[in-house]
Amino acid sequence: PVHTLVLLRHGQSQWNLENRFTGWTDVDLSPAGEAEARDAAALMAEAGLTFDICHTSVLKRAIRTLNIVQEQLDLLWLPVFRTWRLNERHYGALQGLDKAETAARYGEEQVFIWRRSYDTPPPVLDRADPRHPSGDRRYAEIPAADLPCGESLRNTVARALPYWHQVIGRDVTAGKRVLIVAHGNSLRALVMHLGGMTPEEIMQFNIPTGLPLVYELDAALRPLRHFYLGNPEEAEA
Ligand SMILES: O=C1c2ccccc2C(=O)c2c1cc(NS(=O)(=O)c1ccccc1O)c(O)c2O
What we know:
This protein is α/β, with parallel strands linked by helices. It has seven helices and six strands. About 35% of the residues are buried. Bound molecules: ligand 9JF.
């Protein structure tokens, strides 16, 4: 039997507009981001897609994107599960900085290294920093040792995949049609796993915002086919 899984990256947020590292900062969608969510829903409706269960992060830009899609598809009643494990990569002390500020503080050379590395974390936040997640009660249940405060892409993959293996994979195997609305790097973790991709390959791979990515999986959750609804060429990644 073929299982259908849809991945959707949330649309533009206010800090995307300003080209700032967002990470776990809980910024909202911009009006354009809300429109991207509505367009994504229209593409899914046209394709005749429907769902039995949804998974998203605990960040409002993903939660609101999912909510807009549910509203457009008249599926507001669906069960929704929210987890920190689908949050965007944590960019540590870079969160809030734009390109100029990052280069000014850390130098072009360091930025160049960070851009190309799968294993290098950004500068981490110390617990006294107001941006440290220990101060946010939505993360209160997470053991301190697991709580990210600056992640390499490898770190993000490592904390996202358990949710795939323990939760989403079970839903798909149970025959549920699953919609996941999340972030560029947490979705990379799923795409990397599903495609058996190398670190080099996944770093080249940018999921466009607002375009549903459809996977058809076999009984063993191996991808038979995957394709975008709409036109990825015209989308900005
Ligand atoms: O500095 C980083 C960086 C630092 C630490 C971990 C990961 C990354 C990273 O993945 C990255 C970076 C810069 C840029 N481009 S940029 O230098 O033009 C840039 C810098 C700051 C904010 C937004 C920008 O577009 C990227 O495209 C990246 O993918």
